[in-house]
């Protein structure tokens, strides 16, 4: 007597690593640093919105450009190229600590540690000897700088640079009130080119910001 045919067991779906499905390689923009730069602001790596618009700090809720408007009249209401030009005129440059990395989404906390490749900040300092300060935008930028960049900068050069650990302007950092963040970011103006200074009307606007 023949045996009844056995039904083939249903194939189980292959489980993929969810990180692999959402992992994306992101890269920073070229340095936006002008001649005579005195202070360079280093973020971590561009967000998805910044990559989409090819502009640093492009997320509408990021406070970087509102702060630059308060401090240097380089606010988000201006065309991007004019904002950059005004920062350069004030001796401010911007770049990132990471050249590229793998990051699911936009959060710095999602950056995969093993994928981090730093930007050549030591070379930037060599080509721009006028840089006197480095402002690190947020805890992640500070960690990457300490771990991957500072050891590559000569001790003598590093001693001549002021390192500013500033609160992140990212909308993900909501634990510090905006007014307190802005007050700490005001430290950048210590390195403003004298001819620029801090415009009176922006001083008034800064003091009234909440």
C-alpha end-to-end distance: 87 Å
Please write the CATH class name.
Alpha Beta
Instruction: Give the tally of structural domains.
Output: 1
Overall geometric form: globular
Mean pLDDT: 85
CATH superfamily label: Uracil-DNA glycosylase-like domain
Which percent range fits the helix content? 25-40%
Number of strands: 7
Per DSSP, what share of the residues sits in E-state strands of 2 or more residues? Answer: 5-15%
What CATH calls the topology is Uracil-DNA Glycosylase, subunit E
Please give the largest β-sheet.
Answer: 4 strands, parallel
Low-confidence stretches: 13-22, 196-210
How would you describe what is shown here?
- Helix content is 33%, strand content 14%.
- The chain is of the alpha/beta class and 210 residues long.
- It has a single domain (19-208), classed as Uracil-DNA Glycosylase, subunit E (3-Layer(aba) Sandwich), CATH 3.40.470.
- A four-stranded parallel beta sheet has the order 3-2-6-7. Strands 1-4-5 form a three-stranded antiparallel beta sheet, covered by helices on one side.
- It is globular.
Give a short summary of the structure.
The protein has 9 helices and 7 strands; from the N terminus they run αββαααβββαβααβαα. It has helices spanning 18-22, 48-53, 64-72, 80-89, 121-127, 139-149, 155-159, 178-185, 200-208, and strands spanning 25-27, 39-43, 92-96, 98-102, 117-118, 133-137, 162-166.
């Amino acid at each position: 007597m023949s045996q009844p045919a056995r039904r083939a067991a249903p194939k189980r779906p292959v489980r993929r690593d969810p990180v692999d499905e959402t992992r994306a390689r992101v890269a920073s923009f070229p340095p936006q640093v002008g001649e005579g730069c005195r202070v360079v602001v280093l973020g971590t790596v561009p967000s998805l919105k910044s990559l989409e618009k090819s502009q640093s700090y492009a997320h509408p809720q990021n406070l970087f450009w509102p702060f630059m408007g308060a401090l240097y009249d380089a606010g988000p209401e201006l065309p991007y190229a004019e904002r950059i030009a005004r920062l350069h005129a004030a001796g401010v440059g911007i770049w990132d600590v990471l050249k590229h990395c793998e990051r699911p989404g936009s959060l710095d906390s999602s950056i995969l540690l093993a994928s981090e490749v730093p930007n050549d900040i030591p070379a930037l300092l060599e080509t721009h000897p006028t840089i006197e300060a480095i402002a690190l935008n947020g805890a992640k930028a500070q960690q990457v700088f300490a771990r991957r960049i500072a050891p590559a900068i000569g001790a003598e050069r590093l001693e001549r640079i002021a390192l500013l650990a500033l609160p992140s302007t990212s909308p993900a950092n909501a634990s510090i009130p905006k007014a307190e963040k802005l007050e700490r970011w005001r430290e950048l103006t210590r390195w403003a080119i004298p001819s620029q200074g801090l415009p009176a009307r922006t001083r008034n606007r800064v003091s009234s910001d909440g």
